[in-house]
Amino acid sequence: MDTIASLFSFITTPVSWVIVQFHSLYGAIFGPDTGWAWGLSIVSLVVLIRICLIPLFVKQIKATRAMQTLQPEMKKIQERYKSDKQRQSEEMMKLYKETGTNPLSSCLPILAQSPFFFALYHVLNSIASNDTIGVINERLLESAQKAHIFGAPLAAKFTDSSSTVEALGSSITDVRVVTAIMIILMSLSQFYTQRQLMTKNVDTTVKTPFMQQQKMLMYVFPVIFAVFGINFPVGVLVYWLTTNVWTMGQQMYVIRNNPTPGSKAQAAYLDRLYKHVTHHGKARNRRERAIVKAIVAKGRDRNDYERKFINGLSKAGLAAQADGSVVKSDTAVATVTEEGTPATAAPKRQQPKRQPKSKRQTGGPKPAGSAEKTSSPSTSLSKSGDPEDAKPAGSAGKAAPKSGGGSRSRAQSGQRKGPQRPKSSSKK
């Protein structure tokens, strides 16, 4: 611990100074020796640090998005150079360099918090050991030792012995109950934060090893926090629980307002944006115009959610422009009438009703006006090139009943009228 303290000694004094300044503020309200004054001082330290780290958090989001965009290319490189790990690493570095992506950028907020975390840990450990540190003198040291958070001393740990806890003015039961609850809350907040990222803000159309790695971390991190949390003082647990809650809320805001393309969060965001735009008839602010502009610029590369958004605007009589604005469109789809069909839609083609088989064999009822066009069976069997006057008068009278009866019998038996066409020699 002395080695770690010496490594972070450059930041121990600033951290202790910030805590003392917040303690003087909250001590005037709640009392200098109360757990509220010291606990809120630690919470305020977390808030101050996280506000300073917002630029790094924005950079982390951009790096994570860039890594998700590169996942298909990375997967191709892994499959192409599966047997050559060195060439695989070289191609990966080349891809990072060409796209300007740094995988370590996603870890910047955690790395930047580490010095403050260890500095606070050393400050609280010194309070438990009755040692002054930084700007915390003997008077402040005595005040911090009297401070209790829900009955647990600020510097007590889950693994402390009964004598150590009694020296700080508390019982071992109170310390272990409070620290156990805080460790559980700390692990659950870490799990929910990671699960929220995996279930809502990841492009589900791309299955890559990166997603499997993130899913594994979703279960590994809470276990790590639970194992190491039993060695953290109550003040450090307050610090880490506060930073987890901050991260969870910050990530919820980002997922809601700036989701990853192709994720479920983007589908929900575009649905809300569609309702706002159609209600007001335009994009209301700069951020909405930027989102519409980015979707229009993608063209054919739009995902399903973005295409649904553009098509929805068209059906509502609106058109998204290249500059991000939304205007009324003259070529919009017609509104739906009371019958449920578009007003400008062409009438649907109706299929003729199929007749029963018995009516088809007997000829069925003939449509009106067809009597003049149709002739008798004997006439229809005659060749079109033979004139009627060429037939003998006597033979015509005899042949008519025979031909009529024959054609009627053939019609009733379902056979084809007239002479059968010879089968082609090519068909067998």
Please, could you describe this protein's structure?
It contains 18 helices and four strands. The chain is mainly alpha-helical and 428 residues long. The strands form two sheets. A two-stranded antiparallel ribbon has the order 1-2. A two-stranded antiparallel ribbon has the order 3-4. The longest helix has 29 residues, at 172-200. It starts with a helix and ends in a 16-residue tail after the last helix. The model is unreliable at 332-348 and 367-414 (pLDDT under 50).
Annotation keywords:
18 helices; two-stranded antiparallel ribbon; mainly alpha
Describe the biggest sheet?
2 strands, antiparallel
Mean pLDDT: 75
SS-derived structural category: mainly alpha
Strand content: under 5%
Morphology call? elongated
Q: Kindly state the number of beta strands.
A: 4
Low-confidence stretches: 332-348, 367-414
Count the helices. How many?
18
Taken in chain order, the helices and strands follow as HHHHHHHHEEHHHHHHHEEHHH
Q: Helicity level, as a percent range?
A: 55-70%
Radius of gyration: 42 Å
